[in-house]
Amino acid sequence: MKNSLKFIILLLFSVSMAAQTDTLTKTINLDEVVISTGKFTEKKREVPYQVQLITPSKLRFDNNQTTADALLNTGNIFVQKSQMGGGSPVLRGFEANRVLIVVDGVRLNNAIYRAGHLQNVIRIDNNMLDRAEVVFGPNSVLYGSDALGGVMHFYTRTPQLSANKTKVNAGAFFRYASANNEKTGHVNFNIGTKKWGFLTSFTYSDFDDLRQGSNRRSDYPDFGKRPFYVERINNTDSAVVNKNPDKQVGTAYSQYDLLQKIRFRQNDKVNHTFNFQFSNTTDVPRYDRLTETSGGLPRFAQWYYGPEKRLLAGYQLQLDKGVSWFTNARLTLAYQNIEESRNSRRFNNPGLRRQVEKVQVWSANLDVAKNLSTNNTLRYGAEITYNNVNSSATSLDITTNLVTPWNTRYPDGGSTYLTSGLYLTNQHRMADGKLIASAGLRYSLVQLKAKFESKEFFPFPYSEANQTNNALNGNLGLVWLPAPTWKISLLGSTGFRAPNVDDLGKLFDSQPGTVFVPNPNLKPEYAWNAELGITKNLFGKLQLETTAFYTLLNNAIGAAPFTFNNQDTIEYDGVQSAVFAQVNNSSAYVTGVNAAMLFDVTNFLSLFASVNYTYGRINTDTTDYPLDHIPPIFGRAGVKLQSGKLKGEIITLFNGWKHIEDYNLNGEDNQQYATPDGMPAWFTLNLRTSYLLNKNFEVQAGIENLLDANYRLFASGVSAPGRNFTVTLRGNL
User: Fold this and answer.
1) How many Å separate Cα 7 from the centre of its chain?
2) pTM over 0.90, yes/no
3) CA–CA separation, 733 vs 731, rounded Å?
4) Residue 113 CB contacts under 8 Å (≥ 6 apart), including other chains
5) Under 8 Å CB-to-CB from 150, ≥6 apart: which residues?
6) Nearest to 363 by CA among 122, 108, 135
């Protein structure tokens, strides 16, 4: 440890000496622009929303293994993990299908996005992102259903054109990380002419089993240890002693991502872009389930997600003609094909159950902006998406290879899910641009149809479920800029989330002795939100920012005890289980605060810090009950040094205690994977460096979790990486 600290001190001294004649790339930028708050480019300073912008330079320097890790390392977004091949972002205490994921203008949330923990964000290749924008709080005016906690909008790189002769650019990197023996290779190239641009990229990542930290708290000396794993020996399941209990056997997986974009510039005012994305994985072990025991033996011999496939094919037309009814317009058409499966087999049971979900999504978005004057902008648009869900299931006897039907996760007769909406917003600058008012309105319609055909495995008392829900959402914002160094904003916004196929029609066992059954009578949930934001810039070097919010959730959808055919316990998969379902609670609330600081101390040194506190409760007739998904206090702080070629950063990520009395024991907080007292507080110390060898080559190195702390993120079923050495070699032509 002493040697590690000496290395850090030496590095900081070296960077500071090298930087005496260079200037830092400023961390404070008063002219940052964002897109996702209004569908078109606008200054971040002029919008009332709290926005986290992840720039290309930060994505490159942070050099994270997955997109989920890129979000986590902002210090303002919490991420839960059930397995290493996962990452479920939490925005203001909302998670999974209560937050919206958008890529290049196409919503990824589909009919089977679940309420628990959702790992789909890591199927986005962070190595090909141009930027990411996270808008916190309800934003159903622009995005419709699901945008309760916020919107994560990821923008992939755009094919570059060439004004004169054909130009070819290429880039590649190789990364190695020691904690999971990561080996990632990436290559991309761009061919640009005056009118055509072609951008291609391919990324392949291979991860071995993850090693967790070895330095545990003295009061929990065995927390997170993996004492055994299951192997099939002589056609018999055997619990094998793990020689290294810090090695989380059953976390390894691989993934590859392909992107192809073609751009055609018809003229200066008309652009066409074709967008193809494909992501696929090997089997991804569900690590938390593999650690469960029953009667002193492993509960499962196998539990894994089959290859998770995501295909997106899209077309976007961008018009900048400035005709009578629009200044800018964008039409986005997309088709998505998603396949995922759950495969599980109990210990010493030959039946391997396989549930397969296939989802096809067609979508169309029209977004229009009209500048009524230099101070008045009108935006309007329409959206429609159609989801088709097919669910099948089989049971394979691994000793005889006999395949028989099994119970499906979703209605076996198929399901459809249709969303549509129309929106209108207006932004008006007043008082010489010092006062900016904005307002918006949206009407949304959501239709769901599901058919329960087979009663062989479960005695459904109904054959189909049909729902039609609509909502009228609005927002009203005010930004006051009393001086160039001040920003004060007020925002009132609403959101809604209509039940999808996962909410309404899913049958599954969430944990031993608990079974969730469909609830066709589920209704939409609605959010009313108010927030206040204050930003102050001092001397052009220090920026202080804070946002406080309060969100009221009516008809809040959550897990609760239920009855099925008038019974509160039933037998499911050979286990007598308590019946639960997603139900509408009367109301719930979430409140919290975010505070952030950026300080350019000198021309080569900057400091940064952020902290987030969230509190949520379900209202009851007696004592309010904890709302699930609410993270403990968390954040990050650090120092950055930079010269022309050398950059260094030391950061700490931290989480406070999540005490067991603040867990929702009926929901998705996963108390079974925590200590008896809850999830302990933790912090990590991390170091990153990069050195530009020349204009074509760069080397990056880092040490993550320098103190080798053992910890878990709240609600997670897998421990975080221990001390992790990383090295990356990059080349560009």
Assistant:
1) 34
2) yes
3) 7
4) 96, 97, 120, 146, 500, 502
5) 91, 92, 94, 99, 100, 134, 135, 136, 137, 139
6) 108
Find the Cα–Cα–Cα–Cα dihedral 324, 330, 333, 337, rounded to 10°: -160
Using the CB atoms, write b or e for 434-448: b if 16+ within 10 Å: eebebbbbbebbbbb
The CA distances from residue 12 to 2, 222, 541, 687, 726, in Å, are 16, 36, 21, 11, 18
Q: Residue 204 corresponds to which tokens in the numbers above?
A: 């392949």
Question: What pLDDT score does 27 carry?
Answer: 60
Residue appearing with tokens 């954040």? 635
Which amino acid, residue 566?
Answer: N
Element (H, E) at 681: none
C-alpha–C-alpha distance, residues 358 and 356, integer Å = 7
Short-list 93, 91, 127, 92, CA closest to 101 = 91
Ranges of H-type helices in 419-538: 501-505
pLDDT in tens, 261-300: 999 999 999 999 999 999 999 999 999 999 999 999 999 9
Query: Mind listing the domains of the chain with CATH numbers?
Result: 2-732 (2.40.170.20)
| Longest CA pairwise span in the chain (Å) | 81
Residue located via tokens 């989330």: 497
| φ, ψ (nearest 5 deg) of residue 369 | -125, 135
Residues 50 and 592 sit within 8 Å (Cβ to Cβ): no
User: What is the separation of C-alpha 624 from the centre of its chain, rounded to a whole number of angstroms?
Assistant: 29
Beta pairing, strands 99-103 & 150-156: parallel
Percentage with pLDDT > 70 across the chain: 96
DSSP string, 394-450: EEEETTT--EEE---SS-TT-EEEEEEEEEEEEEEEETTTTEEEEEEEEEEEEEEEE
